[in-house]
C-alpha cells in the first residue's frame, strides 16, 4: 500500500458520497476476511491501514492460556513467556504476517468484500437520507424500466421504484424525463433500502394545487377530501375559511387557468372541484354533481346512503363505467346506492312548486279583477252604456245562430209557420 492508494480511496469516498473513515474501516475488514480465508485459514487476523502514508500492517492475534485447545487462536503461557517475560494468562499477543503472502485469490476476495461493503454503506446512507421523506413530493428523473412495466427513478442520492399501479394510466415514461413523484414509503430490507414512489396518489394532486393556487397555499381554501382515478378523473372537495372567498372559483381561476396548470402536470386529468359540506346529505349531493339527485336517505351506522335519481339523471349520476358514483363514494366515505325514480329531483320539484304558486297567484289576481269589474256597477241604476248593449246584442245573436245550427232548416220552417 502507498499514498496513491489513500488518494484513490478518498476519491472513491467523494464520488460515492461515503464517509472516508467508514470506507477505510470497511477496507480493513475486507482485508481481514481475505487473509482469514486464503492466507491464514482459521486464525484471527487484524489489519491496520495508516490513513496518511497508506502503509498496511497485518497481525495474527493469539490469546495466552494455560492449556491450548485451539492452536490457531491460542498460545500456551509457557511458550508466551519465552517470547515476552511480561505476558500473563488472558492477554493477547500479536504476530506480524508478511503482506507479500497475499495471494491472487486473496486479492479477488478483497475486491468482492470491499465492493459489498461499499454497497452496504451506500444503502445505509440512502436509507438515512430518505427514511423521513415518506409523504413528500420530489422531482425525479426516469432512469430505466423493466419487462414488468416497473419504472425506476433517480432521486439524486438513491433510486426508487414506481410499480404499474402507482403510474398514471396512459402516461409514457421515457429515460431522462423529469417528473414529480409522491414518496409512499421507505423501508430497509435485506437487499437495501426500498423506496416506493407514486404518480397516482391523491396526495400528489393536493400538493400541485397548493403549488398553483395561492388561496390553498395560505390556508384560505382548505382541501377536505380527494378522490382520484389517475389519468382519467378526480374529485376534490374544498371549503373556505373566509366567507368572502369562493373556494371553487379560487381553485378554477380565470378561465380555468389555475386548474389547467395542475392538470398539465397530470396528463390533462379531469379534476372536478366541489363544495364540501358538514352535512353528509348535502356533501353527497354535491359529490354526485353534475347530476341532479332527489331524496337522500343516510344510514350513519352502516355508512350507507340511498339516493333517489330521476330517470333522465341516472346515467349522469352513474358516470362512464360507474366512475362518477365510484369517485363520489371514495370522496364521501359512504357506500352509495342509486335508485332510479320516475319522479323529478328535489330541486326540480322545488322549482315547479314555486312556479305553480306564482301561476296560482297571477290567476287569482286576474280572476278577482275580472269579478270586481263585472259586479262593480251592479248596484247602480245607470243605463248600460252603448258598449255594453253592443256586447249583449252580440251574445244574443251568437246564441240564436247556435240554436239555428242545432235545429236545422226544417225546424226553422216549422217555427216560422207557427209564428205566422
Calculate Rg over CA atoms. Answer: 46 Å
Task: Indicate the CATH class of the largest domain.
Answer: Alpha Beta
Termini separation: 156 Å
State the strand order across the main sheet: 7-6-5-8-9
Let me know the largest β-sheet: 5 strands, antiparallel
Helices, by number, come to: 13
- Strand fraction equals 15-25%
Determine the CATH superfamily of the largest domain: NusA, N-terminal domain
Ranges where pLDDT stays below 50 over 5 or more residues in a row are 378-400, 406-420
Order of helices and strands: HHEEEHEHEEEEEHHEEHHEHEEHHEHH
What value does the average pLDDT take? 80
Shape: elongated
Structural class, from secondary structure content?
alpha+beta
CATH-scheme architecture of the largest domain: 2-Layer Sandwich
- Taken together, the total number of domains comes to 4
Give a verbal description of the structure.
The model is unreliable at 378-400 and 406-420 (pLDDT under 50). The strands form four sheets. A five-stranded antiparallel sheet has the order 7-6-5-8-9. Strands 1, 2, 3 and 4 form a four-stranded mixed sheet that branches. A hairpin with a 2-residue loop joins strand 8 and strand 9 (192-198). The protein is built from 13 helices and 15 strands. The protein has four domains: 3-128, NusA, N-terminal domain (N Utilization Substance Protein A, Chain:P, domain 4); 131-198, Beta Barrel (OB fold (Dihydrolipoamide Acetyltransferase, E2P)); 213-276, GMP Synthetase, Chain A, domain 3 (2-Layer Sandwich), CATH 3.30.300; 383-420. It is an alpha+beta fold and 420 residues long. The chain starts with a helix and ends with a helix. The chain is elongated, with a radius of gyration of 46 Å. It has helices at residues 3-15, 20-39, 77-83, 104-130, 202-212, 214-217, 247-252, 257-264, 280-287, 311-318, 323-332, 346-375, 386-419; strands spanning 44-49, 56-65, 74-76, 92-96, 137-145, 151-154, 159-162, 178-189, 192-198, 221-229, 233-240, 270-275, 296-299, 304-310, 335-341.
